[in-house]
């Protein structure tokens, strides 16, 4: 991969008209992506976006790179085959809560455990948008939609707990309305070698408007957003509150009422147990964490596969086709 | 000195419990027989369960081999010799034995318990009530083998496990075979288990020597077959298929990527390929059938020869992705080793019932070339040709094999790498004026691999605008694209060789038209019909979609067409649909291949009753 410093966001914008609904959170994610990739030092021709089906999955059409808009849920598997074939490519899987967690849930968990060096962006808007508003696997229990007029009966997925359960080697959360944070996370996911899983909260202003209001509204977000910073204590609400661990049980403490910074939980994204506890900050009793929950260095599937091939060639010699056709035992007639 | 009798050909059926090592003994006999210079054909037949109830009829495993000094086209109809290691094997297979045939049994397999498990009433022991006119050999395999095991350090529970080698040794003696191939095999297999090696070698030798010591036994001699000159090997269909894929990737200069999910009877292709990493083969055991095919699509996008292999139910799961591959216009080979269906059906049995699925089974207008292999070694050529068309025409191609071809073996006059047809991938490297869906005169678009500056483009399953490949919902454009893709696939037929009859005259009262594994049985039946002076010809179809351009004119020359198929009539519908000719099916849906005699009987019936 060569470094290209000369490209700008405009160079990564394709000639296709962007066709999301006006006001959709996808625009912001697209914009952050287009502005981050020129800074990553990857040649444009070495970048590939692979998506499934859904609103978010139109994403590859708008990036002036290589791309594929595939079929529902299967982007992780397609990207895996592509990466194994061409490990030098920087491959980004674009998926949504329906695409990645419902129809494609199986591929997602297997991608994560194999740790193929891919970046997965899961746009979570907690609704089926493209099919016009049915509840999704991340919709809250009791949600009333066209397909759940009396309220959804489905217990929702916790995407980050799921990713950690599948032994993902990089797990993060960001949100469409915080461009700077999103760019930082995208950049960090690129730096990570292995599968990076990023959940991006994304507002569907047509079918599920305001579902993340707690984390975007000026009056509400201070109390509800916990920004994770490596090596720093878990502090939120303008430094007024913090999180302390009592054993493995997180507790909110008030720093203005005597609690000390020294007592707080220090964020360590290499600690799998703490990452899991963080992923369970999932109801209104605790603030919602954003940032890198977990990262570890673990061998990548495609590297191990290529090592096996190199090893086999080293031990058995580069295969000769005539030897292969002849097999171990042949005989001659006439 | 024993009597030795010369034979032109013989069919032996090895049968026993599925834990008795029948498949291993049978395939060893096949390899030895191939190296001895006979032509041969085998038919392994085993239960779907790993361990079906011991001693029962449903747990019987069989391996039939037909070999001789003349050309062999089928695993034989009714066997001449039945080796039955237990009462269940006898009960299941005796009815199919040739009259006055030879039966070799181990009386230990006919004790009270085994008789009961096989469903015989008390006092119904067939050994006490032997059918007249059959040649019976009662050989105390279990007892003699235990005697041989006395000299070996082996746990009592393992001492009977080498019975299959004892029997094999005896059969080797009977048919004048060398032990060398099997001894060599055992040394490889038990490299790290010296006790097991010793036991198996002892058993093999003991069986052979037993034949030498007993009186009044006739040995048989089968001369070498007069096969075309050249170098041969023995090969099963699944092995040949794997070799064809590797050969095609090497000739095309592409990496081979094989995405697959374990499924009977296709898994051996995955095993064969996984063992060839030094050929640069990348195998990916996917989480499911859908990931198997979509990972292969991703690999093809990246410039590899993407291949996936499966069997019927797995093929059903791949259907949506097949449509995507067809829309993307990327090379992809999809192998379906057909088995008895529908649903889980008969996993270890053969059938040809996925033909309609291959030709038609997708949403939308989705033509895909379909090539059918007709013998174990032909699986090589079907795979090779399938890959060639996939690459050169930028299209998914379905290669049909089946459980019978997959596990059967035959001698193969294998090709030299240098003699294989060239395969030229239509790569795009020129940056100037690149349009992803611009086509050549064969309607083939170019393959622009990611990583090349200036050729960045987006593919997808949404309908594409002509030439640019941009998303388009335009009505006229959709029709144009559907017709263009159909024409592209139809033009694959321009690459076919001329369609030729296998036997019979250019004009006759009846044409027997086959496809897939029925070739050998039809060949024997039509040859016999011709000897008997009947007006019949044989044509075997390899290309089922698109059909060969010269096929219609050939079919028109015959007033009646008979299509034997291991299904309820699928090719027959396609042929009637395309050519409006009088064609009838001879169906068989029993999980077993045709016997030549079944086809011959139908030929006679049609010619007698025929209203031509």
From TrEMBL, chain A:
GO terms for molecular function: oxidoreductase activity, acting on the aldehyde or oxo group of donors, iron-sulfur protein as acceptor; thiamine pyrophosphate binding. Residues 53-200 form the Thiamine pyrophosphate enzyme TPP-binding domain. The keyword Oxidoreductase applies. InterPro entries: 2-oxoacid:Fd_oxidoreductase, OFOB, THDP-binding, TPP_enzyme_TPP-bd. The keyword Iron-sulfur does not apply. Its cofactor is [4Fe-4S] cluster. Pfam families: TPP_enzyme_C. One of its GO terms (biological process) is cellular respiration. Keywords: Oxidoreductase. It comes from the Bacteria. PANTHER family: 2-OXOGLUTARATE OXIDOREDUCTASE SUBUNIT KORB, 2-OXOGLUTARATE OXIDOREDUCTASE SUBUNIT KORB-RELATED. This is 2-oxoacid:ferredoxin oxidoreductase subunit beta.
Automatic annotation (TrEMBL), chain B:
Residues 251-472 form the Pyruvate flavodoxin/ferredoxin oxidoreductase pyrimidine binding domain. CDD domains: TPP_PYR_PFOR_IOR-alpha_like. The keyword Oxidoreductase applies. Residues 19-209 form the Pyruvate/ketoisovalerate oxidoreductase catalytic domain. One of its GO terms (biological process) is response to oxidative stress. The keyword Oxidoreductase applies. Keywords: Oxidoreductase. One of its GO terms (molecular function) is oxidoreductase activity, acting on the aldehyde or oxo group of donors. This is 2-oxoacid:acceptor oxidoreductase subunit alpha. It comes from Croceimicrobium hydrocarbonivorans.
């Amino acid at each position: 991969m060569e470094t290209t410093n000369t490209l700008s966001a405009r160079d990564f914008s394709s000639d296709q008209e962007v066709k999301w609904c006006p006001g959709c959170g996808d625009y912001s994610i697209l914009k952050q992506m287009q502005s981050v990739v020129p800074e990553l030092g990857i040649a444009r021709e070495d970048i590939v976006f692979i998506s499934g089906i859904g609103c978010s999955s139109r994403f590859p059409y708008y990036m002036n790179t290589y791309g594929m808009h595939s079929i529902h849920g299967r982007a992780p598997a397609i990207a895996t085959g592509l990466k194994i074939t061409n490990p030098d490519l920087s491959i980004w899987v674009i998926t949504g809560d329906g695409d990645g967690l419902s129809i494609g849930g199986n591929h997602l968990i297997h991608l994560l455990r194999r740790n193929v060096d891919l970046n997965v962006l899961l746009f979570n808007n907690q609704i089926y948008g493209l099919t016009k508003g049915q509840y999704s696997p991340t919709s809250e229990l009791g949600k009333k939609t066209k397909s759940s007029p009396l309220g959804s009966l489905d217990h929702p997925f916790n995407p980050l707990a799921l990713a950690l359960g599948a032994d993902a080697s990089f797990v993060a959360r960001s949100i469409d309305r915080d461009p700077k944070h999103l760019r930082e996370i995208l950049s960090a996911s690129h730096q990570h070698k292995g599968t990076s899983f990023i959940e991006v909260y994304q507002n569907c202003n047509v079918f599920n408007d305001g579902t993340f209001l707690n984390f975007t509204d000026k009056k509400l977000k201070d109390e509800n957003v916990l920004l994770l910073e490596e090596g720093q204590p878990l502090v939120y609400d303008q430094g007024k509150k913090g999180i302390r661990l009592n054993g493995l049980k997180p507790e909110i403490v008030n720093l203005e009422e005597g609690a000390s910074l020294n007592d707080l939980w220090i964020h360590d994204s290499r600690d799998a147990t703490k990452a899991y506890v963080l992923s369970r900050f999932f109801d209104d009793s605790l603030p919602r964490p954003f940032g890198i929950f977990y990262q570890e260095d673990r061998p990548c599937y495609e590297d191990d596969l290529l090592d096996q091939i190199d090893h086999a060639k080293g031990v058995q010699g580069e295969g000769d086709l005539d030897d292969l056709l002849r097999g171990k035992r042949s005989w001659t007639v006439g | 000195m024993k009597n030795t009798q010369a034979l032109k050909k013989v069919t032996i059926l090895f049968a026993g419990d599925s834990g008795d090592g029948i498949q291993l003994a049978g395939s060893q006999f096949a390899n030895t027989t191939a190296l001895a210079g006979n032509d041969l054909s085998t038919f392994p037949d085993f239960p779907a369960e790993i361990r079906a109830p011991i001693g029962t009829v449903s747990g019987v495993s069989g391996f039939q081999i037909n070999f001789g000094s003349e050309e062999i086209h089928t695993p034989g109809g009714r066997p001449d010799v039945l080796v039955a290691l237990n009462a269940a094997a006898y009960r299941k297979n005796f009815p199919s034995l040739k009259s006055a045939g030879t039966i070799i049994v181990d009386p230990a397999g006919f004790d009270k318990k085994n008789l009961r498990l096989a469903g015989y009433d008390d006092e119904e022991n067939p050994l006490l009530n032997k059918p007249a006119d059959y040649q019976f050999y009662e050989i105390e395999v279990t007892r003699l083998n235990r005697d041989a095991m006395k000299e070996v350090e082996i746990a009592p529970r393992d001492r009977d496990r080498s019975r299959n080698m004892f029997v094999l040794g005896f059969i080797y003696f009977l048919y004048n075979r060398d032990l060398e191939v099997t001894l060599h095999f055992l040394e490889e297999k038990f490299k790290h288990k010296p006790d097991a090696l010793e036991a198996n070698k002892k058993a093999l030798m003991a069986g052979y020597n037993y034949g030498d010591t007993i009186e009044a036994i006739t040995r048989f001699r089968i001369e070498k077959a007069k096969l075309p000159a050249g170098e041969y090997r023995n090969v099963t269909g699944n092995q040949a298929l794997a070799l064809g894929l590797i050969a095609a990737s090497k000739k095309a200069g592409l990496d081979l990527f094989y995405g697959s999910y374990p499924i009977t009877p296709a898994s051996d292709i995955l095993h064969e390929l996984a063992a060839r990493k030094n050929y640069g083969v990348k195998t990916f055991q996917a989480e499911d059938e859908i990931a198997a095919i979509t990972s292969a699509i991703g690999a093809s996008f990246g410039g590899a020869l993407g291949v996936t292999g499966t069997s019927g139910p797995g093929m059903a799961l791949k259907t949506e992705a097949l449509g995507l591959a067809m829309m993307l216009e990327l090379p992809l080979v999809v192998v379906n080793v057909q088995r008895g269906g529908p649903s889980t059906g008969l996993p270890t049995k053969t059938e040809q019932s996925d033909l309609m699925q291959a030709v038609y089974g997708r949403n939308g207008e989705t033509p895909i070339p379909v090539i059918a292999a007709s013998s174990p070694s032909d699986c090589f050529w079907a795979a090779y040709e399938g890959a060639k068309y996939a690459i050169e025409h930028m299209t998914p191609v379905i290669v049909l094999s089946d459980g019978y071809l997959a596990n059967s073996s035959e001698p193969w006059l294998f090709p030299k790498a240098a003699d294989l047809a060239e395969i030229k991938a239509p790569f795009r490297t020129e940056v100037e004026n690149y349009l992803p869906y611009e086509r050549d005169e064969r309607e083939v678009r170019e393959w622009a691999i990611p990583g090349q500056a200036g050729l960045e483009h987006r593919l997808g399953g949404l309908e594409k605008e002509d030439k640019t490949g941009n998303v388009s919902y335009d009505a006229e454009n959709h029709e144009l694209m559907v017709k263009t893709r159909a024409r592209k696939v139809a033009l694959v037929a321009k690459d076919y060789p001329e369609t030729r009859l296998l036997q019979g005259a250019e004009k006759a009262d009846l044409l027997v038209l086959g496809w897939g594994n029925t070739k050998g049985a039809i060949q024997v039946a039509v040859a016999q019909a011709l000897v008997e002076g009947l007006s019949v010809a044989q044509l075997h179809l390899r290309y089922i979609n698109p059909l060969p351009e010269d096929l219609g004119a050939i079919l028109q020359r015959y007033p009646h067409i008979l299509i034997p198929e291991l299904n309820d009539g699928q090719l027959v519908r396609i042929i009637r649909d395309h050519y409006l000719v009088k064609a009838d099916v001879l169906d068989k849906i029993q999980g077993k291949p045709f016997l030549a005699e079944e086809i011959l009987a139908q030929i006679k019936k049609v010619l007698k009753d025929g209203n031509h």
